[in-house]
Amino acid sequence: MSNFGAMDLSGLTQKDQKVPNQAVADWLVNGDEATLRAYLALSEATPVLMLVTDQSEASTRLRAVVYEVIQASAGRFAGIEISIEQQPQIAQAVAVQQAPAMLAILAGQPAPLFQGEATKDQLLNVLTQVLQMAAEKKITSQVSVGAVPEAPKKSLPPEHQAAVAAIDSGDLEKALGLYQKLIVEYPNDSEAQAGLAQVKFMIRLANAGPEAANGVESLLVSADQLLVAGQVEQALTSLLERFEVDFENREAIRERLLELFVLIGNAEPAVLEARKKLATLMF
Fold first, then answer.
1. Distances (CA, A) of 25 to 127, 142, 146
2. What whole-number distance in Å separates Cα of residue 42 and Cα of residue 37?
3. pLDDT at position 154
4. CB neighbours of 276 closer than 8 A, spacing ≥ 6?
5. Is residue 138 within 8 Å of residue 74, measured between CB atoms?
6. pLDDT, tens digit, for every residue of 198-220?
7. Is residue 80 within 8 Å of residue 36, measured between CB atoms?
8. What single-letter DSSP state applies at residue 146?
């Protein structure tokens, strides 16, 4: 990540600003000072991506890529677009002199990511780092588009409530231990299985380092990144293709596939198809 220079948003941030509801108007909204104040507050709970644009074709192309990636992240990011021409004071506040450019905002603090265009793969690599930084700061809440009414949720047993509370507080290791204990006590508890898969996934994202040049670990990291990007079928296919030929690491790949099946949802078409393929390859 390159540094554009010193940044100070103290003039926009209000200490008593409350974190808004976890619903946004769109995955990438046009921003002014009022919108930015709301998104600075939102960044206390959810990673915010700030895209600074102008009227150039480069900005248009990058905007399309950023929107696609944020939309596919299933609420792991909230996006705000700042026009360098219409909101020059905001661009100046974050030390951006030329568009397009991109920053991440975590807990009210902007961090420059890159300036100029970026491919989808480059953007995904950068955002994986942002998720790691966010997890370290316990900024892991997700957003949704629009205030869509939710069906009443059934109350969770105390053991599940403790695990969920640990996730909400950012103590993923505690949540991991609680879910592992639940699985031992209640092997058929599907909610505990889903919770365990989710926590393991979050821990992997938080602890992910540079990928190995080769080997099964590189494959597993790549599958996680594809899943973050919303490319579910590609993530499963990459594991299945390796499973078919890599007999030495079959067990590790199979275990990761089973975890992803639970994480994605056993009733999802992509999972049903992948289960059939896995069964065929095993027998």
1. 21, 14, 5
2. 9
3. 54
4. none
5. no
6. 899 888 887 766 554 457 888 89
7. yes
8. S
Total Cβ atoms within 10 A of residue 207: 11
For residue 209 the two structure tokens come to 């380092």
**Distance between CA atoms of 101 and 200, rounded to whole angstroms?**
33
Residue 177's CB is within 10 A of a number of other CB atoms, namely 14
Q: Is the pLDDT of residue 143 over 60?
A: yes
Residues 235/256, Cβ–Cβ less than 8 Å: no
DSSP run (H or E) holding 34? helix 33-42
Distance CA 23, CA 38 (A): 12
9 and 94 Cβ atoms separated by less than 8 Å? yes
Residue type, 43: S
Cα gap 178→181, rounded to integer Å: 5
Q: Position 86: which residue type?
A: Q
Spatial CA neighbour of 234 closest among 260, 207, 199: 260
User: Exposed (0-12), middle (13-18) or buried (19+): which is 199, by Cβ within 10 Å?
Assistant: buried
Name the pTM for this structure.
Answer: 0.49
Could you tell me the two tokens for 261? 């099946």
Closest of 124, 41, 49 to residue 94, by C-alpha? 49
Q: Which amino acid is at 120?
A: K
